[in-house]
Amino acid sequence: MIDTPEEARGTSTGTVVRTVLPPAETSAASAAPRPAAPRENRLRALDGLRLVAALMVAGYHYGGRDGEVVRAWGSSPKHQFPTLHHLFAYGCLGVQVFFVISGFVICMSGWGRPLRSFFASRASRLLPAYWAAIVIVTAVFALPVVAYETVSPSDTLVNLTMLQQPLGADRVLGVCWTLWAEVRFYALFALCIVLPGANRRRVILFCAAWTLAAAIAQGVHEPLLDVVLMPEYAPYFIGGVGLYLVHRDRRDAYAWGIVGVSWLIGQHYAVQRLWHAPNPEFFSDRSSYGIVLVVTFGYVAVAAIALGWLRRANWRWLTVAGALTYPFYLVHEHLGWVVIETYHRTLHIPSYGTLPATVATMLLLAWLLNRFVEDRLTPRLRTALSKPRP
Fold first, then answer.
1. Quick one: the chain helix, strand, coil %, rounded to 5?
2. Which of 308, 275, 310, 279 lies closest to 293, judged by CA?
3. Residue partners of 210: CB distance under 8 A and separation at least 6
4. Confidence of residue 328 (pLDDT cuts 50, 70, 90)
């Protein structure tokens, strides 16, 4: 969602990972077989998977739920997409797929990287497109011809910090709640792994401790622990980290154990939060089997990439797809309402034509943001934040 191959060392031009063994393991290093380092190839399939997850979320926002989008269509998406709305309702699980990808990429990006460089790469990746999206959505919603209300000026300014949720401010971007989860994951990973230095033992301990602590936090219902440990989302991040360990050594039993436990807990949370007994008053009609299947797809897809099974998916256009995913994700929901209303209710384009046209329009806007905002500001911000100070 928010991690591109350019930022994840090893997914752009490839990287050779060198594992530094702790003193206790050094004596056995010569006797024990060394895990093979990941091949030096760009994981372009990860770019494609990221775009698939973004399109899943867009399908959910455009045709898999009620809410503000009803005003855009002029009626419930149930009436616009009598058959497809059942499938679109599962699109919200694209977020869980994003989180698994993020765990993989952040572990790859942070391995062997100093804290200053890690912070600079994350901040420069997140902020330019995010700031631009805040400005654009606010400006569009302020137009007299647009029926949607923007947030107050004060809350808009707070949104620029990306801390609007803990501060209780209204959100300019509906999807930014996922960024708040990502930021907390980055902080935990930076403090526990990047700062002391990444190695296999430390990462395994981090995953095990976070899994146990998150389960305890869920059991004691302590709000502070819930905010810090994110029990509902931790399994997906942890599963992605475990899959990066698998990428480093597919024979690592501990890594596979982390992935397996994370999948078991992750599907539990997904079903618990998203399944409900069939009720005609509810929009969604997701089965528990369908939810488990989509969550499993996320883990299996990243596992296939980690194991090199999708190595042949090395098409250059996937790099472009990966670059567009984050800005597309930021702007697609709220601006999508405006575009849907224009195409469907003003230009009278049928719903099955409006949907792909809206996605294409949002991808075009994402390309413009990537080309004129991210490509220009991200390197400058990264350089400024990476520069050592006396």
1. 70, 0, 30
2. 275
3. 188, 229, 234, 238
4. very high
Q: How far apart are CA 132 and CA 7, in angstroms?
A: 20
130-165 pLDDT per residue, tens: 999 999 999 999 998 888 888 999 999 999 999 999
> What pLDDT shows up at residue 35?
46
pLDDT at position 1, please? 53
> Lowest mean pLDDT: which of 17-21, 109-113, 339-343?
17-21
Alpha carbon distance 183, 177 (integer Å): 10
Residue type, 203: V
Helices (H), 230-342: 234-248, 253-274, 288-306, 317-340
- Determine contact, residues 331/136, Cβ cutoff 8 Å: yes
Structure tokens at 272: 């618990």
Contact 42, 322 (CB under 8 A): no
